């Protein structure tokens, strides 16, 4: 077996294999090598066809990636690892505080119609919208057109979180999420409050500490370590969501082991 730095350790594989049909049948290429190939692609940003030859054939790797994405395996792994990490760190399974933010990412030219121009940042592409807990791990991941304002895209994020986080009491946001309509929608959808915290340059009053907002910004910084995510190469937005889920899965595995 190849020995790339992106390969899973034995302990990490023992966790992941529980979510895969490892014992389903005898295989020419072990599923562990398939997962290692996906992690290599995510970390290095190479094309599927450019995977090194000591990995299984690229079309087989892509087949399993699509299969696990469509069957919800990545989402299930992401949720279970998040709960496990919180328990290990002495936290409740369900968080009580969330932080919301977004970033616009350029897309390649071969994506579907889900892209637009962020007039503020002058970026043509998609917007990655996250709500994270105080550990920086997402509670919700939504990818939509970059020309959709944060206050509008947040409605889709809140809807995605419905009925999932019973302890959630507050979500902290920046000035882009101001508005009584958004606050009322959050209260009706999730039953929690929206607190808008302005940076000093957004607030005309005296200097004030910006609590917790750096956490979600750090989460986006973590994604910069995965070259596949620096530019959105995925044809469909849901594939981009799966890639982000996988990136945080590998981040959490590295924190646990």
User: Helical amount among residues, as a percent range?
Assistant: 40-55%
- What pattern of helices and strands is seen along the backbone? HHHHEEEEHEHEHH
The tally of helices reads 8
What's the rounded overall pLDDT mean?
A: 92
- DSSP strand (E) fraction? 15-25%
Radius of gyration, Cα only, in angstroms? 19 Å
* End-to-end gap: 21 Å
User: Which residues sit in consecutive blocks of at least 5 with pLDDT less than 50?
Assistant: none
Biggest sheet architecture: 6 strands, mixed
Shape: globular
Quick rundown:
The chain has 257 residues and is α/β, with parallel strands linked by helices. 40% of the residues lie in helices and 15% in strands. It starts with 9 loop residues before the first helix and ends with a helix.
Describe the model.
- With 257 residues, this protein is an alpha/beta fold.
- Helix content is 40%, strand content 15%.
- The protein contains eight helices and six strands; from the N terminus they run ααααββββαβαβαα.
- Strands 1, 2, 3, 4, 5 and 6 form a six-stranded mixed β-sheet that branches.
- α2 crosses α3, α4 runs parallel beside α8 and α5 packs parallel to α6.
- It is globular.
- The model has no long low-confidence stretch (mean pLDDT 92).
């Amino acid at each position: 077996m190849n020995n790339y730095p992106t390969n899973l350790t034995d302990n990490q594989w023992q966790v992941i294999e529980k979510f895969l049909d490892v014992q389903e049948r005898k295989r020419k290429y072990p599923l562990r090598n398939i997962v290692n190939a996906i992690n290599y692609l995510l970390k290095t940003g190479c094309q599927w066809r450019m995977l090194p030859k000591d990995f299984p054939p690229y079309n087989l790797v892509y087949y399993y990636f699509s299969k696990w994405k469509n069957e919800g395996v990545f989402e299930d792994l992401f949720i279970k690892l998040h709960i496990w990490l919180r328990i290990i760190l002495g936290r409740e399974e369900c968080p009580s505080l969330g932080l919301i933010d977004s970033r616009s990412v350029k897309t390649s030219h071969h994506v579907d119609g889900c892209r637009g121009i962020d007039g503020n940042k002058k970026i043509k592409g998609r917007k990655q919208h996250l709500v994270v807990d105080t550990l920086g791990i997402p509670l919700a991941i939504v990818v939509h057109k970059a020309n959709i304002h944060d206050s509008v895209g947040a409605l889709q994020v809140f809807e995605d979180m419905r009925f999932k986080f019973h302890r959630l009491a507050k979500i902290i946001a920046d000035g882009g999420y101001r508005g009584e309509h958004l606050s009322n929608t959050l209260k009706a959808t999730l039953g929690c409050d929206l607190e808008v915290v302005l940076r000093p340059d957004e607030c005309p009053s005296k200097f004030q500490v910006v609590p917790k907002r750096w956490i979600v910004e750090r989460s986006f910084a973590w994604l910069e370590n995965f070259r596949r995510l620096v530019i959105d190469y995925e044809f469909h937005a849901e594939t981009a969501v799966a890639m982000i889920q996988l990136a945080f899965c590998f981040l959490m595995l590295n924190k646990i082991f």
